[in-house]
Amino acid sequence: MTMDPAEQRDERVMTLVAEALKTPLDQRDSFLLAACQSDPDLHREVSEIVKWEEQMGSFLSRPLISFIDLDALEQIFEPGQIVNERFEIVRRLGDGGMGVVYEAFDNTRKRRVAIKCPKPGYDELLPKELSALDVSHPNVCRVNDLHTTKTDLGEVRFLTMEFLDGETVAERLASGKFEEGDAWLIARQLCSGLAEAHRSRILHRDLKPGNVILCKDKDGSLRAVITDFGLAVETSDVRELEGGTPNYMAPELWRGAEASRASDVFSLGVMLYEMVTGSKPFPALSKENVTFPPPVAPSKVVKNLPRRWDAAILPCLKENPDERPSAQEVYAELGHIPFYRRPEVLAVLAACLALATVGALQISERLKPPPNKLVILPVDAPGDLAQRGQTILTAAARRIEQVQSGQPTVSVVPPATVLTRGVTTPQQATDIFGATHALQLKLRPDADGVLANEALINLATHENMREYSMHFSKADLADRKTFDDILTEGLTGTVTWGLKVQRKQRTVKQETVAPAAGAAYKNGRDYLDQEPHDAASAIPEFRKAVELDPHSPLPLAGLAEALARQARGKGPFMDEAYDLLNKAEAMAPDSPLVREAAGVLDQFRGDNDKALGNFGRAEKVEPDNVNVWLFSGISHELKHSPDKKRTDDEFDKAITDYDQAMSADAHDYRPHIYLGLLYRDRGEYFAAEREYSLAHRLAPDQVDVTSSLAAIYDQEGRHPEAEVLYRDALQRKETPLTLNNLGANLVYQGRYREAIEYYSRATQLAPDYYLYWMNLGDAQLRLGEMEEARRSYQNGADKAGAHTRQNHNSALAFAYLAYFEARLGNKDSESNIETAMDLPGRDDQVIICAVKTYEALNDRKHAISAASQASPLTVQDMNRRPDLTDLSHDPEFIKLLQQKTAQ
Amino acid sequence: MSDNAGDITILLRRWHAGDHQAGEEIFRRLEKDLKKIADRCLAQENRKGKHKHALQRTDLFIENYLRLAKQNKVVDWRDRGHLFAISTINLRRFLIDRARIWPKPDVSIDDLPEGVLAKRDSMEVRMDADRLLNELEKTKPMTCAILVARVYMGYEVSEIARIFSLPLRTVERHLHNGRKWLFEKLKRKQD
Question: Which of A733, A725, A732 lies closest to A741, judged by CA?
């Protein structure tokens, strides 16, 4: 920069002023005289300024406002803050140039969510129409809702979306190209997600590795999720590129054309190219150099890469948008790539991801992250003591996690992790782990032994909340019990007292069973407390227990509950159940197990309010009892009916109850199953999937849990993944549910012949279950085996008919009966389906059955009218079902589908 | 930065001469820095947090644009620094008009020499300073803008130099002059 004369003068004068002011006061005059020797004007000018500065002191020399920190300004929410009385901010996850993302816990829906809000000034980035984001696909990040809240910065709008735990493709690319197998899996999923969005007429506009998150699926498979759909209003602009930012923008966008499906596909192509080769297809672009020479084929860059990759990727990179394939076509092309190493690669990748998310996994176990995060700093001790101290810290960490009751108050970063991350100071604990507290142990040997000093530090204030010293003699040191255990307990105490942790206290049961009857009673309970309940096996065990100990109310209550479950509320068993319950109540009316049994009986009688009263009493006495929370949740769910219009309220109460059940015992898989089922029935397949996955992890041996998880995959259209799970489950145990589900899975994949095999086996194992007959019949019909199909439908009609006579209120039984009759040409079908649709228990499953019935009756008008009453996701499911292909091509149905999707 | 101070000066001249395209080009090039000025003002404004309708940086940006466009007819732009100086003043004025409470920084009494402070409380000093700034703006707009940028917006001296395209020592001189002027006026009022 060239300076004008005035500026040159300023330079001279002010430089001298600065130097003079640095000189001690008594030497200033002589300094100035010496410096301006030859220039009296300069001397006068400088001296005057210096004099004024001396007189003014610090007057207005610093900003008057207390330091403006623009970064702090961009902190829209703070961890711990509860937004809109609902979203509890857990931590800041990341920073896009224009928005901030937080992890939060949704206290209403009891789930982790991600919150995305624009930085001040970027509000226009939020979409105006939320429906545009409503793409429902496992490989597209699900956006829940748009909210508004008031903050110090004024009104802030934010989006809540599915919480994704994992790393971005960009982060993975930092360590080089992907294994081919991983790349293939991710590529297929990305194409699938993008294709779905394009089908819904939504463009991404800014697809790049930073916008794809790789999450682990708890069963070890991988899920790639595209985020920020439709949010990118300003595509990466030209100026950004001057800094060498890699870009994924299509050539036509550089020339000012509008974004299109083809420009998304171009971005996809660049990303896939980078994933398989580790390098970019085009030379670095800059403002001056925007050229797209034909890229080198991936198979030429990477040895042994199948040529098929070239066929999938290169067309996406065509300069002319019209020549690029659709995402769907890329998906299909990728399908041709022979790929044999899948399971192996899956396992490896899952392991990598698991490592990255250890901390997160521990949290999601309990779902709600605790409010405090504790880092146990490495022990400060010399030599041998250091190692021993570290062992004690590890034990203390475990102990602190163990003693907590209910919702945990504090989560502990494992000391080993702290060591490997090289964290040694409280400040690092905050910076690296985002911890709220740190625990520090110092061991100082002296002449007589060791002085131990422990301190709990509040990282927000840097105050020692608790400090505690203790001296151990040499004899103490030699004894593991004294030294290690006392220190472990001491550290645990320091933390639990300091953070007011609620410690576990097992409720003492008021009643017991005589030892002689104990084994039988326990067996009975175990049969009942599994999912699904095995009442038939429980009954003889409880009978035995009652016989052996007739004076305890517990076996009586257990038997009453088992009988009620077996009888499903009807018949002589039910009468016996009431008798037994009366006896048990006479002995111990307040026993939680007696109240539980009473509640279950109420439930079967259909009196859910009374049942809730009973469960409530049991919950008070024994809050750790998982059963009562579960059953109380069920009662809330049963209370819900479409006509009573209290849907969400009761559902929310049920969710709260299941959450309580999880708190009561974090290792019980059943609450997750119940919650998963609830979500599934509401068509929230992602939430359901998460719950089933958690259940699957807690109880990997429960094959029906595995099957349920797989069933959700089926709902999401991920049939090959589901098939793997089913086959795995079947190898462990053959259950009718799994057999049936695998059959359905094969039907989805068009493999009817194989499906029939599994369906038949399911009907053999559970001949009373009419659903299996329907599936078998449908598959046979599809293959043209009329006679066999007819036999299956007849069997189904018999079973469903029997059920409707037993229970006049079962909408599902009526619906199935109607379907079978339709297939068999029985004219009662129509009146039965009307009955089913009018019953209060009508849910989406009944609606699907009704639609199928009307289709079988060739009554398209009623089929569509029935379908219109289903939830949007169910309608989407109908659209995919192989047994409703005709319907899904009907223009009326397509219209309905569009309406529902827009909802 | 891709914009060259000379280019901007030429563009400013063209804009003043009625070339609208040149005006747009100026804003495209200087958008980042102009938005930064808006951010600083917002930081001040929103810090108070009491406003029902907090401003967005876009509001300020547009407000500034409109004012500059109007001023373009009467102001013969010297250079990029001139434009920024006017922008700073525009926004300050806008915020004062809007709330009549700006600037209201956390004035620390410790910072004020006794001669200036005398028997007045910091609130009074603040009000006086505010009035005097309006006066300074009329006589020495650049000095005023630089003082506002430093004292009321919290910019580092080096940042001011970059944004206003001025040498560091020149900015220091402006700051000195501005402070001296204000100091003298406040003192005279006291005497």
Answer: A725
Of A57, A68, A70, the CB nearest to B113: A57
Question: What is each CA distance from B20 to A352, B73, B74, in whole angstroms?
Answer: 57, 12, 15
Give the pTM.
0.36
Distance (Å, whole) CA A735 – CA A653: 32
Share above pLDDT 70 across residues of chain A, in percent, rounded to a whole number: 84
Asked if the Cβ–Cβ distance from B152 to A63 is below 8 Å, we say yes
Nearest CA in chain A to B181: A52
- What pLDDT was estimated at residue B189? 66
Residue of A nearest to B36 (CA): A70
Which residues of B are less than 8 Å from A67 in CB distance? Answer: 154
Label residues A843-878 b or e (16+ Cβ within 10 Å = b): bbbbbbbbbbbbbbbebeebbbbbbebbbbbbbbbb
Q: Catalogue the long-range contacts made by A277-282 (C-beta closer than 8 Å, 24 or more residues apart).
A: A277/A177, A277/A301, A277/A302, A277/A305, A278/A173, A278/A176, A278/A177, A278/A302, A279/A177, A280/A246, A281/A317
Distance CA(A880)–CA(A888), nearest Å, equals 8
* CA nearest to B54 within chain A: A154
What local confidence, expressed as pLDDT, does residue A236 receive?
39
| CA-closest candidate to residue A217, choices A349, A28, A384, A406 | A349
The answer to whether A18 contacts chain B (CB < 8 Å) is: yes
A60 touches chain B (CB under 8 A): yes
At B72 the pLDDT is: 72
Residues of chain A positioned with their CB less than 8 A from the CB of B146:
none
Looking at residue A108, its amino acid is T
Neighbours of B121 (CB within 10 A): 10
Contacts of residue A123 in chain B, CB cutoff 8 Å?
A: 56, 58
Q: Which residue has the tokens 């004076």?
A: A551
Q: What is the rounded distance in angstroms from the CA atom of residue A844 to the CA atom of residue A220? A: 31
Per-residue pLDDT tens over the stretch A177-229: 888 778 888 898 899 889 888 887 788 888 888 889 888 765 566 789 988 77
Least confident of A11-15, A281-285, A437-441, A478-482: A478-482
Sort out which chain B residues have CB atoms less than 8 A from A58's CB and list them: 111
Q: Which of A347-351, A379-383, A411-415 has the least mean pLDDT? A: A347-351
Cβ of A154 within 8 Å of Cβ of B51? The answer is yes
> What would the mean pLDDT of A777-788 be, rounded to a whole number?
88
CB contact (8 A) between residue A154 and residue B35? no
CA distance A878 to A502: 49
Q: How far is Cα A683 from Cα A689, in angstroms, rounded to an integer?
A: 11
Contact A506, A540 (CB under 8 A): no
* C-alpha pair distances (Å), A684 with each of A136, A661, A678: 10, 21, 9
Between B105, B179, B180, which is nearest A65 by CB? B105
* Mean predicted confidence (pLDDT) in A710-734: 82
Q: CA-to-CA distance for A745 and A758, rounded, in angstroms?
A: 10
pLDDT at A798: 92
Q: Indicate the pLDDT class of residue A271, thresholds 50, 70 and 90.
A: very high
Cβ-Cβ contacts under 8 Å, A152 against chain B: 46-47, 49
Residues of chain B with pLDDT under 70: 1-6, 41-59, 73-75, 93, 95-127, 154, 189-191
Which residue from A minimizes the CA distance to B105? Answer: A65
Q: Is the ipTM of this complex over 0.90?
A: no
pLDDT level of residue A864 (50, 70, 90 thresholds) = very high
pLDDT tens, residue by residue, A397-422: 877 877 776 556 788 887 877 887 78
Q: For residues A228 and A234, what is the distance between their CA atoms, to the nearest angstrom?
A: 12
Strands (E), A181-229: 212-216, 222-226
- Pairing type for strands A437-445 and A372-376 reads parallel
